[in-house]
Amino acid sequence: MDLKLEGQRVLVTAASKGIGFGAAKAFLEEGARVVINSSNAKRLNDAKDRLKSIGEIHALPADISLHAEIDKLVDGGISGLGGLDVLVHVTGPPKPGTFLELDYDDWMSGATSLVVGPAYMAKRVAEHMIRAQTKGRMVFLSSYVIREPVPSLALSDVCRISSASLVRTLARELAPRGIRVNGIMPGYIQTDRIDQVVEANVRRKGISRAQALAEIENTIPLGRIGTTEELARVILFLGSEVSSYVSGTVIPVDGALLKSVG
Ligand SMILES: NC(=O)c1ccc[n+]([C@@H]2O[C@H](COP(=O)([O-])OP(=O)(O)OC[C@H]3O[C@@H](n4cnc5c(N)ncnc54)[C@H](OP(=O)(O)O)[C@@H]3O)[C@@H](O)[C@H]2O)c1
């Protein structure tokens, strides 16, 4: 299917590896022109080097939890690509921990990176799309924990729920401008983040790596952890005109992990 993404201008945040990197690669393979971002310039440039044979790629380092850096990133993306058609917003992983393990500074940092940062970047991108009369698309990557909280990820449980409201609020406000806004709740997707979770369980429970992995896989009805390529295909769908009548929704991509309905 032709997703009609050839020449489309795409900004992907938190993309030096993992989910963001997979999304950027998928857009490049569809002929889009892509800006990738992450907070570490060296890791980001390494990622750019791995992608540059596929298509037009730019790298803009910025910490997407900080006001001035978000401004710099959005302005740089717009001037580098001559505008923006698609924002794929991924955040860095929040600090893990149970509720009582977290302190004031942890909550401030979680709220800044998972609530304030995405909202402010959405505002900046929306203002640009409205000004340029671009019928753009935004895709916010959240987590399945917004439906079914995980005790060891309290920051994520509490703060990420805002992504569902951000998507719904923005989608309704921007629909008259032709801008669509959606989100995705990934379940378990194979990235360094999953390796860290597995290693933490190995240490905490004194079990082998294979056992720790099996524990996770046994909770997933499809019986395995998903790949960044499988997730990227859904991001492409929401970031293209193939999803032209979809806005305001947050789609699980989780191998049937979620048990709840609605
Ligand atoms: N993998 C999963 O199964 C899964 C499931 C649900 C939700 N998620 C969430 O999805 C997001 C991405 O996860 P992942 O698995 O792809 O993690 P990952 O492989 O660890 O990649 C995280 C990315 O975030 C970037 N980053 C970190 N802090 C940043 C900041 N302040 N500003 C800009 N970029 C930043 C990192 O690059 P630099 O270090 O270069 O900054 C890196 O590119 C996380 O929020 C994670 O919690 C993941």
Low-confidence stretches: none
Q: Which of globular, elongated, flat, extended, rod-shaped describes the shape?
A: globular
The CATH topology of the largest domain is given as Rossmann fold
Strand tally is: 7
CATH class wording of the largest domain: Alpha Beta
How many whole angstroms does the radius of gyration measure? Answer: 18 Å
Our estimate of the beta-strand percent is: 5-15%
Count of separate structural domains: 2
What ligands are attached or bound here?
NADP nicotinamide-adenine-dinucleotide phosphate
How far apart the termini lie comes to 30 Å
Listing every helix as H and every strand as E from the N terminus to the C terminus, the arrangement reads EHEHEHEHEHHEHHHE
Strand order of the largest sheet: 3-2-1-4-5-6-7
CATH architecture of the largest domain: 3-Layer(aba) Sandwich
How much helicity do the residues have? 40-55%
